[in-house]
Amino acid sequence: MPAASRAYTIVLDWLEQRLRSGEIAVGDKLPSERDLAEEFGISRASVREGVRILDAMGLVRSATGSGPRAGAVVISEPSTALAWALRMHIATQSLPVWDIAQTRLLLETQSARDAAAAPESEQRQEVLDRAAALLDVMDDPDLPSFRFHELDTEFHTVLTSLAGNVVVETIMDSLRQATIGYVQETVAGLSDWPAVRSELQVQHRAILQTFRDRDGEAAAAALHHHITWFYRLSAPDRDSADH
């Protein structure tokens, strides 16, 4: 029998194998704790720990109680787990926020170039319209700052999706989620937040226009300016990402 401290990994390995083989798919319900414990010869506590980890990884969603809705169901929310891990490591300062900003630069500017080369489609227009609608909501001066940041995050992620790279979109979403607390703390320390917010919106609309124009280089340049401009507000002594 495996050591108690490692027994839960059997559940993780089992689910990975079943997902790879297609025996289990997103939306399927996992067997009960009792059934899994009996199958693997481990304790129900170890099974429960494995399910908790899968939950934190964004692979299952657990519901307590009894009946058809109880138990763990397979889902797929990869950005949730990545954002959680990044947020914790940012808090320990092992992952500098400025390095996060530079990573965003790499991902978003390349995505902008790729999006410009993507074929025209009805979906592309829907994405651009959605981005514009988000900016319209963000124009409201009475919109709470935390909501502004949430919509800001969505705006960037939506535009990144135009490149058609699901992995990049997932990582982008994770990076934005991971830094939302930092952004809110930065804004709380700004005495001229209304002016900053207005400038951000000017930049957002300029970025959106470059996407509408399918000008990848202009979009990359606008995103570079936008990202570095904001992060310099919170770390004005840091070298710019140009160096």
Task: List the topology elements.
Blueprint: H1 9-21, H2 33-40, H3 44-56, E1 60-63, E2 71-74, H4 78-91, H5 97-117, H6 122-138, H7 145-160, H8 166-188, H9 193-212, H10 216-234
Antiparallel strand pairs: 1-2
Helix pairs in contact: 1-3, 2-3, 4-8, 5-8, 5-10, 6-7, 6-9, 7-8, 9-10
Structure description:
- With 243 residues, the chain is mainly α.
- It contains ten helices and two strands; from the N terminus they run H-H-H-E-E-H-H-H-H-H-H-H.
- Strands 1-2 form a two-stranded antiparallel ribbon.
- It has two domains: 9-74, Arc Repressor Mutant, subunit A (Orthogonal Bundle), CATH 1.10.10; 79-234, Four Helix Bundle (Hemerythrin (Met), subunit A) (Up-down Bundle), CATH 1.20.120.
- It is elongated.
- It holds the Pfam family GntR.
- InterPro entries: GntR_C (IPR011711), TF_FadR/GntR_C (IPR008920), Tscrpt_reg_HTH_GntR (IPR000524), WH-like_DNA-bd_sf (IPR036388), WH_DNA-bd_sf (IPR036390).
- Keywords: DNA-binding, Transcription, Transcription regulation.
- It comes from Citricoccus muralis.
